[in-house]
Design brief:
Number of strands: 17
Radius of gyration: 24 Å
Helix content: 25-40%
Distance between the termini: 51 Å
Structural class: alpha/beta
Number of domains: 3
Strand content: 25-35%
CATH class of the largest domain: Alpha Beta
Largest sheet: 11 strands, mixed
Number of helices: 14
CATH topology of the largest domain: Rossmann fold
Bound molecules: L-homoserine
Length: about 425
């Protein structure tokens, strides 16, 4: 049987998982590809560190350039993360005519346009299934399975660490910092956990999904991004009382006006399947204009789950080694990518959950509802907590109808200026996903 040699740049959680899964499933993988897939070399910063995989038979080096320069290696798998040296090594590998696989969502979101162009120029593949939603084959589903559809919108829980934190806060009342530490110990969190908690990691993934959905160049800077660090157990409880769960959601939608791309905490009715996606699990709903809504669910992080996606790309490349046609990087012919207007968050319409700290005195509710009415905002539900002791401050929780964000920004300013309200209004967007 023919051998295809693979070089790994990085031998941490995902690299170790890739070696393990290739070993565990080598027979099936050979049956599927017609090749024996061999990891011949791997680079790591510290060769003395203990590994989750057996490295017998793999030549280890601290110099990733050795892998890129090895003429026998046909597929380079970049699992180092970060911008540099990952970007330069990928460019160099592509220029040398090697196929490249990466799990580096930040790199694809920020530099994918340049990297895909270099891959096309050299007639090789740059594959990135592992960059989005861990083990879920969402790139394959969007580029191939849904290719008959115009995509209307997609919405996803696409950061396992953030979902794990929100779930533990809800189920166990755990403190934010403890849960984050647990996610780091399990290898879910990014090297800089701010990327998980502040929504940057989810924004990277959403940017790629939006380009796959609508056939447009990657445009990370246009993704509106809000993290989960301001969500308190109080908001989680109030949302539950209203029949909702708070999820950190990425949403991309195309309308006549343009494309919206946003990542933020979102109230979702507990009746929706996606509201019940818990722990490190990810899920993406994609609404196609022929098939309707489809849901993809699976582990969003972890060694072998992410390795599953890396190896699916290795298998795809093996199948193309014999000259079969490649699928375009973003699923549309490169020359067919379109510059569609990208909407700022102020021009996007959603419903809202508002938590307002108020004085316990007559006329407070009337003042708030007057402000909302003056800004054209209709109320869907109201929850007022009894002030304890009487006369103390309390919370008013409101669910509004859909409203354009700029009206809500003005209404919140007006509410915060009222004598009878305290501090900032907490606002979380609500999605019905209809
Ligand atoms: N930190 C990421 C997450 C890893 O938690 O989803 C997978 O991309």
């Amino acid at each position: 049987m023919n051998v295809v040699k693979v070089g790994l740049l990085g031998l941490g959680t995902v690299g170790g998982g890739t070696v393990n899964v290739l070993a565990k499933n080598s027979e099936d993988i050979s049956r599927r590809t017609g090749y024996q897939v061999v990891v011949s070399k791997a680079s790591a910063r510290d060769l003395t560190r203990s590994r989750i995989c057996d490295t017998d038979g793999i030549q280890l080096t601290t110099n990733p350039q050795e892998i890129v320069n090895d003429p026998e290696i046909q597929i380079v798998v970049e699992l180092m993360g970060g911008e540099e040296p990952a970007k330069s090594l990928i460019l160099e590998a592509l220029k040398q005519g090697k196929h490249v696989i990466t799990a580096n969502k930040a790199l694809i979101a920020n530099h994918g346009n340049e990297l895909f162009a270099e891959a096309a120029k050299n007639n090789v593949v740059l594959a990135y299934e592992a960059a989005i939603a861990g083990g879920i084959p969402i790139v394959k589903a969007m580029r191939e399975g849904l290719t008959a559809n115009g995509i209307e919108w997609l919405a996803g829980i696409i950061n396992g660490t953030g979902n794990f934190i929100l779930t533990e806060m809800r189920d166990k009342g755990s403190a934010f910092a403890d849960v984050l530490q647990e996610a780091q110990d399990l290898g879910y969190a990014e090297a800089d956990p701010e990327y998980d908690v502040e929504g940057i990691d989810a924004a990277h993934k959403l940017c790629i999904l939006a380009s796959l959905a609508f056939g447009m160049p990657l445009n990370f800077k246009k993704v509106y991004t809000e993290g989960i660090s301001r969500i308190t157990p109080l908001d989680v409880t109030y949302a539950e009382e209203l029949g909702y769960r708070i999820k950190h959601l990425g949403v991309a939608r195309k309308s006549e006006a343009g494309v919206e791309m946003r990542v933020h905490p979102t109230l979702i009715s507990e009746k929706q399947l996606i509201a019940n996606v818990d722990g490190v699990m990810n899920a993406v709903v994609v609404k196609g204009n022929a098939v309707g809504p489809t849901l993809y669910y699976g582990p969003g992080a972890g060694a072998e789950a992410t390795a599953s996606a890396v190896i699916a790309d290795i298998v795809d490349i093996c199948r193309q080694l014999d000259g079969a046609n490649a699928v375009p990087a973003l699923g549309f012919m490169d020359e067919q990518l379109q510059d569609i207007p990208l909407l700022p968050i102020e021009d996007i319409t959603t419903a809202f959950y508002l938590r307002i700290s108020v004085e316990d005195k007559p006329g407070v509710m009337a003042a708030i509802t007057s402000v909302l009415a003056a800004n054209g905002i209709s109320i869907e539900a109201v929850l007022q907590k009894e002030a304890v002791p009487q006369g103390a401050s309390t919370d008013v929780i409101l669910l509004t109808d859909s409203v354009i964000e700029k009206s809500m920004i003005q209404a919140i300013k007006d509410i915060e200026a009222l004598d009878s309200t305290n501090g900032s209004v907490i606002r979380i967007r609500v999605e019905s996903l209809q």
